[in-house]
Amino acid sequence: MLKTLRKIGSIGIVTEPAPVADELLRVRAALDERVCALLGRALCIRHVDAGSCNGCELEIHATNNPLYNLEGLGIRFVASPRHADLLLVTGPVSRHMEIALKRTYDATPDPKLVVAVGECGCTGGIFGESYASRGAVANVIPVDVAIPGCPPSPTRILAGILAAVSRLPAFVRTSAT
Amino acid sequence: MPLRRWWERSSPVPGAPQARGLGVTVEEWLPAAQDVAAAGGRLLALWVSANPHGAAAYAAFMAPAGVLVLRLSVPANLPEGFAYPSLATLFPAAGRMERAAFDLFGVQSSGEDRRPWLRHAAWPPGSFPMRSSSIADEAPAGIDTYEFVRVQGEGVHEVPVGPVHAGTIEPGHFRFSVVGEKVLRLEERLGYVHKGIELRFTELALLEGHRLAARVSGDSAVAFSWAYCQALEGLSGCSVPPRAAWLRALFLELERVANHLGDLGALGNDAGFAFGLAQFSRLKEQLLRVVAEAFGQRYLLDAVVPGGTSVDLTPGHVQALAGRIGQIGCEVQELRRIYDEHAGLRDRFFEAGRLAPDLAARLGVVGLAARASGQALDARVDWPCAPYDEMIPKKIVRQAGDVAARVTVRFDELEESSRLIQRILEHIPAGRHLASVATPPAGACGVGLIEGWRGPVWIWLEAGADGAIRRCHPHDPSWQNWPALEHAILDNIVPDFPLINKSFNLSYSGHDL
């Protein structure tokens, strides 16, 4: 126990400032003020892998490491779409995941946001569209923000998530510091 | 007939070192596999290739003397009722590979389990995407039914989990049959992230295939892209500059270290020790950042290219990498002591998800999971390609086969990979890091075998006309290890499944293709 505490003490807080929301990643009109007020500051994210190569998952995990500390912004990952405000979807959407993704989307209460992550989530990427792949996430459910990159860095993912909710007063403050 | 006789009949296959190929008749297919099994060989991969130039079933084995690829020609018109002999009784992992090959090619094995494996509802039964390109893809795929094996008896109930899981992980379905909290049976259903990778390969040029190979399973990008390039360079007679080989080994060991760091943190977290996740994920991030500084990418998805590497190592970055690896190594030692002494972790890790050595051998488990269950298998040591022939890694083997053993193997491999990285950074030869690759003749075949962090990654590559890919079959070690997870969970409790699953950390994408 002493070793653990000593380690915690010696490392200290390593969290870096959050990136600024990248409005350029937004593909749909912004949320209105009313919706933003409803969502509040404690944003809950449900991640759905709809067919990715698992590269994007590695970087989504990284957003939770102490340096990016997504949770420190009041944003956290939840285990059920019913608890979620935002779906973070990696693609391409395989045809075998199409219904699961739609059902996850339907199970997420309104108002909700969808952020597509990675080259494949944005365009279908190298896998494209085929007998087995629907390609971009937007081919299956409406997408608010699309974050390209193979895989996008954690900073890009954060900037994209913040873009989706940047109209929230709390986030404007957080991301400006 | 002992294995030696088959070996003597075989001829070298270009690409991976000590790989040989042999065409067999339908009468010889099973006896040859029996001799491989009797000699202690392991099934490496099983696949089908069918195109206007011919159709064949292939099985690759890791035999003591090297890799043996058996080729069994099958009639192109596939007469009614045709089935090649199943290898599933000899090598249990073959069953799913044969079912997958049928789903894609329509070439049936004699195996008893005829349930679809990779096919859910994206294409109808009776049509085969790798044989006919005319599969309708407009209608949304429905939900199909799958005949899970039912466990019956008083108090038995089923717990279905997935495909969408509760964490940031890939999709798959687990069907638990449970009494109280105890697992009586686990049946996996995979194929949810099947995205047509093998068909996609045939639309790419040989010189672009490495990009798709790297994305078969993103966490093993270096292993897959290297295996692909090894196969391609073998069949086009390209000799890779020594510096490139060393750089590839550097990338591969960095990939191993990054994944082991991530897993060790996640395993601590799954056992309720969030401190572990915070510390290990911090170290992983530090590593990725220095990798990004040195090579321009955090994950080395596009670093291994045909003929060598796309990036070189500059002297300035040698020091940064060496310093970072050294610091991470010291901190891992410190964290390892904390893990070792932590009562809660010991309680959760020891005895959990045990895969006994004899069962691991029977199931044909490979890679990290095999080494934690007493199986001394490591392609880097057994059939080393350059530069591993000049710096043989230490094989890390543990006997217990439980979560604790898989944690220990990761700790030890982390240390060993750090040693290899330091050695590469000190001794990497000077010179070019990229050679040109000639277009191989149509019909040429090559193989790649690279021990990734999870286990042996295999590539079968056939060249088409004008530099096209006729066939590429990538094989992830998860194929062999997923069935073992079904055994490791038995008699454990459902709440321990996430921990046990994580201790294997198998790929869905690499398996579903």
Structural class of chain A: alpha/beta
Largest sheet of chain A: 5 strands, parallel
Task: State the total count of DSSP E strands of chain A.
Answer: 7
Our measurement of the CA-to-CA distance between the termini of chain A, rounded to an integer number of angstroms, reads 35 Å
Number of helices of chain B: 17
Count the DSSP helices of chain A: 7
Poorly predicted ranges of chain B (pLDDT <50, ≥5 residues)? none
Measured by residues with Cβ under 8 Å of the partner chain's Cβ, the largest interface is: A-B, 52 and 58 residues
Strand arrangement across the biggest beta sheet of chain B: 1-2-5-4-3
Give the overall silhouette of chain B. Answer: globular
Low-confidence stretches of chain A: 168-177
Helix proportion of chain B = 40-55%
Rg of chain A (C-alpha, Å): 17 Å
Helicity of chain A, as a percent range: 25-40%
The total of beta strands of chain B comes to 13
Reading the helices and strands of chain B in chain order gives HEEHEEEHEEEHHHHHEEHHHHHHEEEHHH
Largest sheet of chain B: 5 strands, mixed
Structural category of chain B:
alpha+beta
Mean pLDDT of chain B: 94
Share in β-strands of chain A: 5-15%
